[in-house]
Amino acid sequence: MASAVLLGALALGLAACGGEYPNSTFNHNTDFNASTDALWDKLLLWGTVVFIGVEAALVYTIFRFRRRPGAPKPKQVHGNTALEITWTAIPAVILIFIAIPTVRTIFKTQAKAAPESLQVEVIGHQWWWEFRYPQYGITTANELYLPNGRTVNFQLKTVDVLHSFWIPQMGGKRDLISNKTNYLWFTPNKDLPSSAWNGFCAEFCGPSHANMKFRVYTVTPQEFDQWTAHQKQPAIFPAVAAAAPASASASVPPVPSGTGATPVLLASMQGATPAGPTDSVAAAPVPVWTFPRERLEKDFAYTIPTAKLPTTISFDESLLAAGDPERGRQTYGRSSCIGCHAIAGTPFNMANVGPNLTHLATRYTIAGGLYPNTAKHLAYWIKSAPHLKPGSLMPTLGKGLTDPVRKNVVTLGGLTDPEIADIVAYLQALK
User: Fold this and answer.
1) Model confidence at 284, in pLDDT bands (50, 70, 90)?
2) CA 61 to CA 129: how far, in whole Å?
3) Phi and psi of 269, rounded to 5°?
């Protein structure tokens, strides 16, 4: 039995010492985690020195003064002033060596961010993340874009219970506290390649705490400018864009290969025809830019695959291929969806209870980073979110289903499978 336990402990130890981990905090991707990692190294060094010194003294004492037959009684050291001063002074000196770098790091990481920093408001909800860029007028959900080489100042708030904002590979973990704004800032390294990272809630906040994830994309300043230029525009709906003047479509700039961008035209999603060059819907076309799929790391942001969708609800997946975006737009506009979500450019659809859906089709995940943003997952999510995510505040919308949280059977205002398929087609057209 003892040998088996020893072998198991050895295997675990060896497993912990190798490989690269997508959520490791021991790296220097930002100035914040470079500082904290340097502090960790110093504390580990001094802790190791103290450990070796204490253990060496202990082993020496055990052998040097062990009991021997005929040996005299050991000399009494109680009341030895010099010895007591010595073993009091040594820990004090060690604490000084620990305290100085610790205090320096605290002052550095707790200082105010530079005035020219990118401002990002982080708002925690049960159980998803809202990100606002006040300098750009952008609101998005669960996917955070940051430019390399520019300091980012996060203003951390919660609308309900305590949450904790944590991006392991960027450094820093800061709580979101009710009726209080906390701050955290760091600067992604200027030479960092465009990368994707995991983000989590690190404070227990209810039944779906473990499902409250988000994605972080660190991109070049040029890529960030492309992303913000698109995100600042109203949602794009192809059916309306097709009605735009030919002169507008001819002005769409070419898209560089490998950027993940697609040329599109801006348009209102209420079916209005562009009125002219001074109308907001006739603004200059802006290419869609999202983080390229081929750059996503293989271990990044695990999402629940289709095979693990709940069997307690069903959906006629053959309807998805026939979903009509325009019909879905109309169904969405008269459904309860408009009471919770916002889609910029759509009058009377500016609620902020749930995630902003303006550019939903450009995101890789839904449901707080839990599921991939595919037609199938989106259909099941709309039909009954509480079946897919424990405690979800989004109610069951599938007609005839029983909501597992509220225990009511959905009748009035419920959506049929064909209606859900149309809404899915509409939402997946919002780029």
Assistant:
1) low
2) 57
3) -95, 15
